[in-house]
């Protein structure tokens, strides 16, 4: 998922053209040639995908990103802010939901849900304001909550924030579902 430019920390709207371009780009299926994810670099800071792959708490998310064909897109420069649900968060969904979304015929639904977890720009947890609305890659909006030092997105608690080479990963305790 994704991090965003520090310059957009207080930005709550993103131009429609940027949203459309990013959404279109994030929907691209894997090409015959390897993309950015195939670049071998063991010295640089990890990107959002590499960060998720390295986390034992995000195996379901990684499987979903791979199935949706979004690995190369989220390995690109970004910046992205990604709200990354844990395996426990996925387990809270009704039985069979994850398995159903991983089927070929549900690929567009899976992409829509995953893109709802991504904002174009790098936003650190400290930059969020209570009631702030963010335009997500899928065209939906999420609302940030800040109360007593606790930061939430659509009610999901941000458990940790991890800076990456192409953004920020905010680990959350629920899967965000677009309306």
TrEMBL record:
SMART domains: FAS1 (SM00554). InterPro entries: Adhesion/Biosynth-related (IPR050904), FAS1_dom_sf (IPR036378), FAS1_domain (IPR000782). PROSITE patterns: FAS1. Residues 45-176 form the FAS1 domain. Pfam families: Fasciclin (PF02469). It comes from the Bacteria. GO terms for cellular component: extracellular space. This is Fasciclin domain-containing protein. It comes from Adhaeribacter soli.
């Amino acid at each position: 998922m994704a991090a965003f430019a520090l310059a957009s920390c207080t930005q709550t709207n993103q131009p429609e053209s940027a949203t459309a371009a990013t959404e279109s780009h994030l929907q691209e299926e894997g090409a015959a040639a390897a993309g950015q994810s195939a670049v071998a670099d063991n010295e640089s800071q990890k990107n959002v995908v590499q960060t998720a792959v390295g986390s034992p708490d995000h195996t379901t998310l990684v499987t979903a990103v791979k199935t949706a064909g979004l690995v190369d897109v989220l390995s690109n420069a970004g910046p992205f802010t990604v709200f990354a649900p844990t395996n426990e968060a996925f387990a809270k969904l009704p039985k069979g939901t994850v398995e159903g979304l991983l089927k070929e015929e549900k690929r567009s639904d899976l992409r829509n849900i995953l893109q709802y977890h991504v904002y174009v720009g790098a936003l650190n947890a400290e930059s969020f304001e209570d009631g702030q609305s963010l335009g997500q890659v899928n065209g939906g909006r999420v609302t940030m909550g800040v109360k007593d030092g606790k930061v939430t997105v659509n009610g999901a608690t941000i458990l940790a924030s991890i800076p990456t080479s192409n953004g920020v990963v905010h680990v959350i305790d629920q899967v965000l579902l677009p309306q």
